[in-house]
Structure formats: structure tokens, C-alpha cells
Amino acid sequence: MTTAQALDTVPLDRALADLRANAGIWTATPVEQRIGLLERLLPRIEAAAPAMVADAARAKGYEVTAGWAAEDWVTAPWALAQTVGAYLHVLRRIAAGKEPLPAGAVRDLDGRTVVDVFPVTVSDRLLLNGFTAQVWIAPGTTPEQVRERAARPYRGARPGPAVGLVLGAGNVPSITPLDVLHKLYAEGQVVLAKMNPVNDYLRPHFEKIFEEFVDGGWVRFVDGGAETGAYLTAHDQVDAIHVTGSERTHDAIVWGTDERADERRRENTPRVDKPLTSELGGVSPCIVTPGPWSAADFRYQAEHIVTSKMNNSGHNCIATQILVVPRDWDGTERLLAEIRRLLRELPDRRDYYPGAADRLDAVTRAHPEAEALGEGACRLLVSDIADLDDPMLTDEVFASALGVVRWSGQAGRWATAPNIVTDMCRPPCRAASVRSS
Asked: What is the CA radius of gyration of the chain?
């Protein structure tokens, strides 16, 4: 009989003590030095990229030369470098005495303040020509208030020293370092980042990339599972927590797992009394608007839909889980035929994330008619979901399963489809950012 090994808390306590001792130094670091740290971070990302991608490909079960490895280049070094570039763009504006946001980027749109956030640079326009992105600010907030509050830590409202805990994501490689950067640069906190056991092989790469921050005592990376996470979230040297993971992980932190967990939830008395933000995924729909599509349109859009499902084998919080199509549109079956063809033709790839096989099995139990379009019981297609209580509409599969909801109605009514889908696809998780205190 084996017994669980006692958690060695000494390295964790030492890491938090180091961070606490150096938190004030980071708070006082001027913007010019912070810019220099990011500028020197970029070549270290480039240097670490090949080994980081190779390790990710190996862990997911394919060769680094396989086509699938292109995802690892995008979701690890490129995403991290792109975000560093965005931080530098804003910080350089501030260092030059400019407002962090161009005046025309913040505006009133029918009584709601919106901020145009993409594209910003020439490279943005070249890379994703025709794409735009906006942030819609909470109602009641004026454009003047948004401009005043933008980048406040760099404009006279610097926060006090604090230690932030990042509980890292196990699926997309760049999420953990991006959360670290957000804590450092947006919230002004030094960071203890606990790697997820699924991808803790990335820790040596991250430590090399963040070498100057580690040497400065501003960042520490540690390994560990749920027991380590529980110890750190309750630690008195942790001032704030961010977690990327499942609803189950979030609830274990906030309400606990003992016999009083339900009582705490009912009484809204969380176990943690510090700020907590979380990114927990959900059930994401993709809505198809009918129209006179050409053969090229069907192929092109099918590729988009399959990509949104199959990227990282569906192990993404924003992966399409429900495809909403018009029931009476003559293009619906043609689109589904293209999707089936693409799913069958893709190279073999396993659903590697822990628990994926059980979640796919749950889909096939609920839907014996589900089509398996990949090797084994994967790349499942449930082509007609009618019950609003169907588990595919309420539970995140986090694997390679796609459900189809056929909406009955005339084309002219499709302007209201997003509201209908919001009612139909009820994610089990809280909003992307929640506070426990």
C-alpha cells in the first residue's frame, strides 16, 4: 500500500518570501526600465521557440515537422511575442508623453462608449487585413472617464506592492506567460506562477524567457497539482489570484471541497478573501447566416468552422462547440457535408487532454447517433440537437465534438439569432472575470 507524499511547502514559502521582498522594487521600476525588460524579452522568446514547439508537439503526440505543429508556433512563441509588442506600443507612447490611447480610439456609439483596439499598427493591418476589434465599456461610463482611467498605474496612480498568484492553463502554451505579463504590467504585481501538470514541461522555457524577471525577484515558476494550488491560494503572502481552468477548479478554490462547500455557496461566504479573477471557458456557438453562397464560400466557411473546432484538438475554452444553422436553408446540408469531408481528411491526431476520452464517451452515450469522423471515437458530429437541456448545450466538452442546432425561422429573423443562442447555450461557468471578495 502506498501513501501520498507530504507536500514540501518550503520551496513555495521561500519563493513567496523572495517575491514579497522584491515587490516594492518592481512597483518603483520606471516605465523606461520596464520597456527595456520587454525589449530584451523578445529575443529570448525567439531563442526558446524551436525547443518550446518541439516539446509541445512531442507531448501532444506528433512530430515537430507535422502540420499540426504550426499551431504550437502560433499559440506559444508568436502569441507571446505579439502581446509583448502590444505592451511596448502603449508603454512607448506613455514614455514619449503621449496618451496611452489615441484620441479617436475612444468614442460614443449610440450612447455606449467603445474603444477601437485592433488594428493599431501597420503590421496589424497587414497580418489580419479587414479585421477589427472593439471593447464595449460598461453602460454609464463616458469616453472621458475611459481616457482618464487608461493605464492609470503609469500616470500617477501606481498601486502598492503586491504578490499575485497565477494558476496556469494546461492547454495553450502562451496563456500562463501572458497572465504573468498582465499581473506585472497591468496590475503591478510580482508573480508566482504555478504550472499546470499537463504542460509543466514548458517551465524551463518560461524561466529562460523571463530570466531577468526571475533574477530580479519579480517572477517565480513552480510545479505542482491540486494540493499545491490549494496551499498557495490560502497562503497569507498571496494578495490576489488568477486561475485559468475548469469550473470545478474555480469552485474548489472559492467554495472548497468539504461538506460545507454547498453551504458556503448558498450563503455567499467564499473561502478566499482576496481578489480572484478566472477564465473558465463555456459552450461557444458559431452562428451561420444563410445566403446565396458559392461553392468556394461553402469550402471556405467549412474550413473556418473546422479550424475553430479542431485547433488544439478542441482543447480550447473558445472552441466552437455548437454550430447554429438555419433548418430550412438549402445550404445547410451542403455546409455539413463539407465539414464532414474536412474532418475525415485531416491527419490523425489524438485528443490528448486528460479526461477527453470520458467526455467524448459521455457525448456518444447521450447521442448514439453521433458520427465519429476521426480515428476511433473522436471528431464527433451530432448533426441535430433539439433538446435545450442537451448536455452539449450545458456542459463544456473540451474535446473534438461538434453539435449542430437547426434554427427554424425565416432569413429575415436571423438578426435576433445571437440572443436566441445565448439563451440556448448556457455555459456552466462564471463570466471571464469574477471577484470572490
From this structure: 23
What's this model's pTM, rounded to 2 decimal places?
0.90
Cα 58 to Cα 53: distance, rounded to the nearest angstrom? 9
Q: Is 118 helix (H, G, I), strand (E, B) or coil?
A: strand
- Residues 69/311, Cβ–Cβ less than 8 Å: no
Checking phi first, is residue 231 left (phi over 0); if not, alpha (psi -120 to 50) or beta?
Answer: alpha
- CA triplet 398, 262, 424: central angle to 5 degrees? 40
What is the mean pLDDT for each group of 10 consecutive residues in the chain (437 residues)?
Answer: 74 98 97 98 98 96 94 95 95 95 92 94 90 95 94 87 97 97 97 98 98 98 95 97 91 92 94 92 93 96 97 95 96 98 94 96 96 92 94 95 88 43 37 31
pLDDT of residue 1: 45
Count CA atoms closer than 13 A to 60's CA, side-chain side.
29
C-alpha cell of residue 293: 453562397
What pLDDT, on the 0 to 100 scale, is given for residue 432? 32
C-alpha pair distances (Å), 341 with each of 100, 167, 206, 305, 428 = 47, 39, 39, 12, 31
Close Cβ partners of 69 (under 8 Å, ≥ 6 residues apart): 53, 56, 57, 62, 63
- Tell me if residue 116 falls in helix, strand or coil: strand
Long-range contacts formed by 154-157: CB under 8 A, 24+ apart: 154/31, 154/91, 154/94, 154/100, 155/94, 155/100
SS3 percent helix, strand, coil of the chain, rounded to 5, is 50, 15, 40
Strand, helix or coil at 168? coil
Sign of the C-alpha dihedral computed for residues 237, 240, 242 and 247 taken in this order: positive
CA 145 to chain centre: 28
